[in-house]
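Supplementary Data S3. Sequence and structure tokens for construct A.
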Amino acid sequence: MPNIWTHNWFGDKVAEQSKLHTSLPDITLRNIFHLGCQGPDFLFYHRFFPWQGSSDMNKLGSRMHSECCGPILLAMVETLKELQAKPNDPLTHYVFGFMMHHVLDRNMHPFVFCKSGSIKWNHQRFEVIMDTLVMKKVQDIDTWASPAWKQIYIGPQLPSPIPTMMGRITETYFPELNKSITTTDWNTAYMDMIRAQRIFHDPYGIKRVLTFGQIEPLVYKRRNKQLDYLNEARAEWRHPAVPEEVSKASFWDLWDQAMVDGLKVWLAAEQYLFGEVKPFSYDNLVQAIGNLSYEHGKTCDSGLGIIHEEPIWT
């Protein structure tokens, strides 16, 4: 996956062509949308300090990236339907952002997994660098000087419909994990993400020194090693789960592919929720969302995993 900034930018670009776009100037709704654009990634921040150890929220984040991906998104849309949510409702913004996170991941992640490799923290390092290069090009934003947490902060806790919805989904699809997860855990995971991003904002490098370089892979930096992180030379690379699939796609090629995919998903959900519902509109939504893994973009039922890498660092 790209990191915070690129996920937000992708969501914004798709939203420009939708009914939700008119409410994005409202900073609260925009940030709720951007938080949704982080998908299940915020679960990885729960108890993020090394001495706290792993939590069931971390495990849930991993499983949500590879199991029942399509049904979970459909359940979110169905929640909006049940609540008769309007286009400008906070939960609507969150769910549509969440869907866009999935779309960008399923299109971009095979490239990221292939080129970042499996050494600990290199995946995060690659995504942070990707964010920096992309945002400088498309919006002239220096990520190292711009606090990412301000893009997703919506107050000290989540709007109550979000943990309620996520709790129901966890109970349905991951009941064994749900037994140990409380409403408080959802809010803690969200605030831990905010706390972490505040720590990782280090424009002058002071925090990296004070932490003996421990946070280095997660910090946006002014300078990075000059490598073709976006594959703008269109060199060959192999799919990390299906190595016989060879591609020369650059980041920008995959971005265009994701934009087409994202608009298809968005409009299908928008039509189902807010359009003149026709008998085939739900079928269109199911088809558009599919059941694809965040990690490799193939079906969740395929049994595939990440087995191949071509790290850019070597």
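Construct B, processed identically:
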Amino acid sequence: MPRTRLIAALFGLVFTFFSASAMAAEVRVFAAASLTNALNDIGELYTARTGDKMVASYAASSALARQIEQGAPADVFVSADLKWMNYMVEHKLVDPETRFNLLGNLLVLIAPANSAQDKIDLTAKTNIAALAGEGRIATGNPDSVPVGLYFKQAMERAGQWAAVAPKVAGADSVRAALSLVERGEVPLGVVYATDAAVSAKVKVVGVFPESMHDPIVYPFALVAGKDSAAARSFLDFVRSPEAKGVFTRYGFKVN
């Protein structure tokens, strides 16, 4: 190939590369920490299918809602409960017309994998405080973090919150609570079933009956003023059979 044609071909390749890069969009997703593994996998699939990129920030739904309220750049908000999505709607921080509930989960009691604690048939009569002994129970902050709110609700319905509350080690997110149990810093923890499933360092001791707390629901919505084609495309993609298959593989209930 003549030198001039070779140079022209190289310039063409460079131009094509940068043009494709310039056309690719980023979708900034603020999502509940319990979605970390599943959404990371879905983000890779989304990029492979569309060329656009999902950039995710994971934390407690309460923390993410506050960050968006304070101006943090996000296109999509995914909460682990209805409370914080309702907060976002009430404060006009998300577009309510784009809101939908996609996923569900279970609340479980966990212990370190090497714990002597046997699996139990957990009911409203199970004495959770006694199971913890002199130790504490890791979960999300029961005043703000969804997993902690669900646990508090379960204990209130069982008439046990007064006994359990002093033993609660409230963490910033469900994954932070999981880490406390993984490291053996506490004998018990309360997390979602999907979080327990991704860790070989913990075991499920019991599953809370769903009648003990409100349904665990994950609503999705576009952040107000962030109605881009890429963001809408992402919301469509998470409802696709391919994405639903990923959620199911990680143990989520899919609507």
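Confidence is low (pLDDT under 50) at residues 6-22. The domain at 3-104+217-254 is CATH 3.40.190.10 (D-Maltodextrin-Binding Protein; domain 2).
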